[in-house]
Design goal:
- The complex is a heterodimer.
- By secondary structure, chain A is an all-beta fold.
- Chain A is built from no helices and 11 strands.
- In chain A, strands 2, 4, 5, 6, 9, 10 and 11 form a 7-stranded mixed beta sheet that branches.
- In chain A, strand 4 and strand 5 form a beta hairpin.
- Chain A is globular, with a radius of gyration of 13 Å.
- Chain A starts with a strand and ends with a strand.
- In chain B, strands 1-9-8-3-4 form a 5-stranded mixed beta sheet, with no helix packed on it. Chain B has a 4-stranded antiparallel beta sheet with strand order 2-7-6-5, with no helix packed on it.
- The chains are: A mainly beta, B mainly beta.
- The interface between A and B is medium-sized, with 25 and 21 residues.
Chain lengths: ~110, ~110
């Protein structure tokens, strides 16, 4: 498709489990961003990739969160030992370059029960 | 990172222009003003951005004051589908270009 694709659209997991969230950016976009959005709040920055490398991971809340982008395209956000407070919509965005407009996917709604 | 201040909510009559204000008094000379909107249960949608000149595209117009300390997003003929949360963002001039979202303005377009 032409837009940013995120899978799954919904994920329910049990507290303590491990989850992976996938982002397929727009083809040719070198910059990729992950955000987290809690109910009633604006999106919160988590991490930025330029190509394969994480250029800014200052928004990751703790070491349970990790993201990779091994081939400079698809990215996976990984959350270990999930907690109920991790429940949120996780958004991915990509842009052609770091200072051009970013396009967002529809998000993955993660619910930790 | 420069912060933005927006009203929490606004109403607009369908067919009328919606004017959404934003204050960004600490903006730096090389930082852009971006506007995104988010319709319920969807990802944020890019609307427009500018540096110091006014900008217009098929969705909206962006008016930036000469001192760049504030801006206004204008939706010329609001429709019910424009009901959304509108975010005014000053994009960082650092190496990442990350977008820092605030609380935004909830625009309710009414028939």
């Amino acid at each position: 498709g032409a837009g940013v694709s995120q899978t799954p659209s919904n994920k329910v997991t049990e507290k303590g489990k491990y989850v992976e969230l996938r982002c397929d950016p727009i083809s040719g976009h070198t910059a990729l961003y992950w955000y987290r959005q809690s109910l009633g709040q604006g999106p919160e920055f988590l991490i930025y990739f330029q190509g394969t490398g994480a250029a800014d991971d200052s928004g990751l809340p703790n070491d349970r969160f990790f993201a990779v982008r091994p081939e400079g395209s698809v990215s996976t956000l990984k959350i270990q030992r999930t907690e109920r407070g991790d429940s949120a919509v996780y958004l991915c965005a990509s842009s052609f370059a770091r200072n051009t407009e970013a396009f967002f996917g529809q998000g993955t709604r993660l619910t930790v029960v | 990172d420069a912060k933005t201040t927006q009203p929490t909510s606004m109403d607009c009559a369908e067919g009328r222009a919606a004017n959404l204000p934003c204050n960004h008094s600490t903006i730096s000379g090389n930082e852009y003003v971006y506007w995104y909107r988010q319709i319920h249960s969807q990802g944020p949608q890019y609307i427009i951005h500018g540096l110091k000149n006014n900008e217009t595209n098929e969705m909206a117009s962006l008016i930036i004051t000469e001192d760049r300390k504030s801006s206004t997003l204008i939706l010329p003929h609001a429709t019910l589908r424009d009901t959304a949360v509108y975010y005014c963002i000053v994009r960082t001039s650092g190496n990442t270009g990350k977008l820092i979202f605030g609380q935004g303005t909830t625009l309710q377009v009414k028939p």
